[in-house]
Amino acid sequence: MKSNFHRSAFTLVELLVVIAIIGVLVGLLLPAVQAAREAARRMSCSNNFKQIGLGVHNYHSAYKQLPTHKSGTGLNAGVTTWGDELGNGVAQAGRTNNENLSAFVGLLPFIENQSLWEQISNPGAPDASGNGSTFPAMGTNPDDDGGFSAAPNHYGPWSEETPAFRCPSDPGKSKPPGYARINYAVCLGDTIINTSDGPTDGTLSRTSNAGQMARANCRGFFVPRQTSKFRDILDGLSNTIMMGEIITDLTDRDKRSDSRTGLTAADLSLNPTLCNDASDALRPKFWASGTSRIANGANGRRGRGLRWASGSPLYTGMTTVLPPNAATCLATEGLYDGSAIVSAGREDKNYALCPPSSRHQGGCHVLMGDGAVKFITDSIEAGGSTSPMVHRIHTAAGTVPAGVASPYGLWGSLGTRATKEVIEEEL
């Protein structure tokens, strides 16, 4: 018997409709997948910060003080000026670190990096090639570029990447050939003066004038080259920023990381918004072509967050003057020589106007003194950004006297430790 059944097929129109529907679904799904991935990266970034906060509290429990920012083994024998601080002409085995180590070096044993700490704290740490060496305990100056191109002459631990110091949202790659990166920075307060030298002069001496400058200018949670404790945070740990998130430099003229240079510390102190006046008209988040920016050095190793072990503000410091994700500028001065502030001999060692920043949308993480991690938006109330900073240079006070409330609103108040501002709402 002959069957009249015929197998039907999709028409061309039906196939096109199905393909179109699949395309729309894929188009809707991909952004959701990307958003989910970024949410996971952001959560991991926040968790890293939380672990760092716990490490600081454990450190304080063990030593009854905070890890000192810019500590170490002093100047090389015979070196009496900051200009010689790179150790030029000094044998590698005799180099000290010139008190330039960041607070993150001392934190290593408290964030489960005991093995790296033991390499640093004992003599003979490996060089950049992993070979044995005659390096002294606590290593060489992490700001020193000398001999880096010859890998065996470079102190190995400064190039060791620590996952706890990296935010997964940041795409920067550490090596080869550079030092290891970091995405977190200590809070240095709401001024730029003394952000690299604290209460010391160019010979690392604690003079009376240097101490008075530091007491006026160093208003943040950490004071370079000075021991601090939780009891010093008179505004309350939950109301004071301990650290902030930063992006690392990709040498792409991004204003947040590819730092502008050429402005004096006095000019920036009088009007911080001068930092921002060289933006690209078509891409306002980037510097205009021809803007004076930091010289990256051999193999591009000088930029925001590119040296986790260095205490220089460009690498591991943040200020609460301009709001998060604002421009970064390096002043033309970087140390007090006993009578005035002068250049530190290299741009990346100078005072810096360096807001926190992130690759997250709309803001960045900060770590409060009590260990809480908060997400601060770019639109946080930051007062008048054209207001002068509190600053004292040598024996001359600035237009805003020491001890007053921060002129930079809620943002500046969160960055100061003992100015008695009242935080009226939960962040």
Automatic annotation (TrEMBL):
Under InterPro entries, the record lists: DUF1559, N_methyl_site, Pilin-like, Pre_pil_HX9DG_C
The record ties this protein, via Pfam families, to: N_methyl, SBP_bac_10
Residue ranges annotated as coiled coil are none
Q: Where is this region: Disordered?
A: 122-151
Q: Using the record's annotation, list all stretches that form the DUF1559 domain.
A: 34-382
Protein name per UniProt = DUF1559 domain-containing protein
Q: Which organism is it from?
A: Rubripirellula tenax
